[in-house]
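Reviewer comment 2.1 asked that we show a complete input and output for one of the modelled complexes. We chose the MU-OXO-diiron case, as it is the one discussed in the main text.
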Amino acid sequence: MIKTEQLNENSYCVGKIDDRDVPFHRLILKKGTTYNSYLLKTNKPTVIDTVDMMFGKAYIDNLSELINLEDIKYIVINHTEPDHSGALGSLAMRAKDATIVCTEPAVYELKEMYRLQNRNFLVVKDGDKLDIGGKTLLFKITPYLHTKETMITYCIEDKTLFSCDIFSTHVAVKDYFNDTCGFDITEDFISYYNAIMKPHRSYVRIMLDSIKDLDIKMICPSHGFIIRKDVDKFIKIYDDLSQTKNNNKKVVIVYTTIRQNTKKIAEMFKDLISNNNIEVLLFNADKDSSDEIIKAIENSDCTLFGTSTRYGDMVGNMEVLLKLLQNKDLKGILAGAFGSFGWSGEGIELIQEYLNKTNMTVLNTSSIIKSTGMNDVEFPVRIRFSIGDEEADKIRRAAYYIVDLLLS
Ligand code: FEO
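Response of the prediction step:
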C-alpha cells in the first residue's frame, strides 16, 4: 500500500508500506517495514529519497497526485541503497529537469545504478545549504550510517530532520506518527538500532555530535515511524546505546617494518583505538622480546599483526612469532593483519594464513560483509606504500570496526 501523509504546510510523506516478511541484509523483517519518501512542495519542489524499486510504479502514480512531476526541481538522495533510491530512475525520467542532490561518492553510484550519466547533479558537502524556495535545506554528511555516501537533510524552517536509515524502525506502520499510532515505539526503535546501527557505533557518535546544535522538532526517517513526540528522548536513546563502556579491553599491535610505513600504520591503529579508553600495547617484533609479546597477546582481547613485504614474504621476526603462536590457546581473541607494500603485499596474506591456523577469531572482509552487511571495512588492511587520505580512511574504518566489536 502506498500512503500519503501531510506533515506540515507543503510537506508530505509519500511512502510504501511493505507488510511482507521482508528480506533485508540477511535479516527477515518479521514486522515488515516502510520506505518513506518526502515531498516539500515549495517554490522549487523537492523530493527527499524515493522507495524500493519494486514499488516504483505505485510510488510515481501516487506522487503524481500531489504534484506535476515535471515541476520538481530537486531530488535529494540521502543514501544510495536501493530501498531508498530504487525509484530514482523512474522519477528522474519524469522529473526531466530536476537536479539530483547528493554527496560526492553517491554520484558515481547513482549514475551507474540508474543510467543517469547525462543528468545534472548538485554535490553537497557537510554544512551546505540549499534554498528550495520558501524553505532551506541543510545537509549533514553521515558516512557509514549506513554506507559511505550517506547524508541526512535538515529543513531549517520546519525544524525537521530527514534522517534516512538513522532513527528508523522496521515496522509496516498503520499510522506513521509516533504520537498517534497508539503504542510505544521504543522497543522497535531500539531493535532497529541493535540490528542496523550498532555495528557502526563510532559513526553514530560522530553523527550525534554533528546534529547536537540543531533544533529538531520532527524526525522523518526513511523506514517506519515519523517521530514528532519525545524527539529528544529518541535521540538520547542513540546516545545511550552508542556510549562506550570502560570494560578493560586490551589490544596488542605487533609489527615488523622496512621503511617505517608499516610502523606508521601500527601507530595510527594505536592512536585510533586507544582514544576509546582501550589499553593498547605496541611492539616491534624485531626489537621487543618474543616472550613479552606472546604474553601480551595471550592477555589481549584483540591483536593486530603487521608486516612489510620483501621478495614476496614477511620481514624480520614476524614469521618466527607467528610460528610460536601456532600451539597456543588463543580462543576468543580477535586477530587481524595489516601492512604496507609496494607490489603485491604477499607478506600480509601470509600473516593471514598463519592466523587462520590458530584458534583466534580472524577478521576478514568476506565474513564482515556476510555478518553485518558492511562493505566498507577491509581485513587484512593492505596499504600500498605510505598513508595518504584514502589510506587513512581505510585504517580509520578498520580501527572503528575493532573498537565497536570490543565495546558493543
Ligand atoms: Fe534502508 Fe541502508 O538502507
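Residues 79, 81, 83-84, 146, 165, 222-223 surround MU-OXO-diiron (CB under 6 Å). We note this here for comparison with the apo prediction described in Section 3.2.
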